[in-house]
């Protein structure tokens, strides 16, 4: 009987530890998600007290080429995809290269350089935007000042293409690559030294060790960084909003900016919710594809 009571008490104690997270999850994720899906099936104007049920009408507008909402949605989606294509490979490869660089430094310097490369990740996006706006300002920015010293013409970093995208990607990589670096460093520390010693005995070159030992050993971590970096890049908002305001024109206006604009400027919350749901589905599909491709590659290698 005592054992049974102790078991029940242990389960209740475990539930109490999980309860705060469960409450936050339900209040700030599950309920908004369900309510957002509900809104997406209605013609929901923020200034109207009546919200007509339209079924999949809002979703149909997004994929009907004859509607204004289709062009808005596709422009935002395409700009978001372009940012993902531009940024994710740099974040993955750059994070790994930084991790390898730090790993080969003397032990006394490792901690210093880990902090140097990671500290930018702890800064808020607003601070990052202000910093890069100062660096990239056409008239008084540091970069154009250096170009002037070299006798080159100033560059319209934030108001012309492709420099606007280059600026946003550069700011994002500088801001977030340190996170991937830390993840890779932890993964590299878990690779057994015996594998490298065996490779040295077999006469393997540093490149062969990296390709045959390091990469296979950290593959699960690489999958994690690819998926998380892709999801984070799909959710880009602060950098283009604060740095270029979506310009020049709408060439850097990403999907989240379009969603916010439709929801709180145009007051079309139903359309905005439909855009957000479609965006979430796209991210889920991409994540599943990435996991499947990685799993298939592992099976082929085995």
TrEMBL record:
Subcellular location(s) of the protein: Cell membrane
Any single Pfam family the record assigns to this protein: BPD_transp_1
SUPFAM superfamilies listed in its UniProt record: MetI-like
Keywords: Cell membrane, Membrane, Transmembrane, Transmembrane helix, Transport
Domain ABC transmembrane type-1: 77-290
Membrane-crossing segments per the record: 12-39, 83-103, 115-135, 163-185, 218-237, 269-289
Domain of life: Bacteria
Membrane topology of this protein: Multi-pass membrane protein
The UniProt record lists the keyword Ribonucleoprotein: no
Family: Belongs to the binding-protein-dependent transport system permease family.
Name of this protein: Sugar ABC transporter permease
Highest classification ranks of the organism: Bacteria, Bacillati, Bacillota, Bacilli, Bacillales
């Amino acid at each position: 009987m005592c054992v049974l009571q102790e078991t029940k008490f242990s389960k209740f104690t475990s539930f109490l530890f999980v309860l705060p997270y469960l409450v936050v999850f339900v209040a700030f994720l599950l309920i908004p998600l369900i309510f957002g899906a509900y809104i997406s099936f209605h013609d929901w104007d923020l200034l109207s007290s009546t919200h007509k049920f339209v079924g999949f009408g809002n979703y149909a507008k997004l994929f009907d080429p004859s509607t204004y909402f289709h062009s808005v949605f596709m422009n935002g989606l395409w700009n978001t995809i372009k940012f993902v294509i531009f940024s994710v490979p740099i974040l993955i490869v750059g994070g790994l290269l930084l991790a390898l660089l730090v790993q080969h430094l003397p032990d006394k310097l490792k901690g210093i350089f880990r902090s140097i490369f990671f500290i930018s990740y702890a800064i808020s996006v607003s601070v990052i935007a202000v910093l890069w706006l100062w660096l990239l300002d056409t008239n008084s920015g540091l970069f154009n000042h250096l170009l002037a010293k070299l006798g080159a013409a100033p560059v319209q970093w934030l108001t012309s293409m492709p420099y606007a995208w280059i600026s946003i990607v550069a700011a994002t990589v500088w801001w977030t690559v340190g996170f991937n670096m830390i993840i890779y460093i932890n993964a590299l520390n878990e690779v057994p030294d015996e594998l490298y010693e065996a490779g040295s005995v077999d006469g393997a070159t540093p490149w062969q060790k990296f390709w045959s030992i390091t990469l296979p050993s950290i593959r699960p971590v690489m999958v994690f960084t690819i998926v998380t970096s892709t999801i984070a890049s799909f959710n880009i908002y602060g950098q283009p909003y604060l740095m270029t305001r979506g310009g020049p024109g709408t060439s850097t206006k990403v999907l989240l900016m379009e969603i916010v604009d439709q929801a709180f400027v145009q007051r079309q919350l139903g359309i905005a919710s439909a855009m957000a749901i479609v965006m979430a589905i796209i991210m889920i599909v991409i994540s599943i594809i990435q996991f499947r491709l990685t799993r298939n590659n592992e099976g082929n290698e085995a």
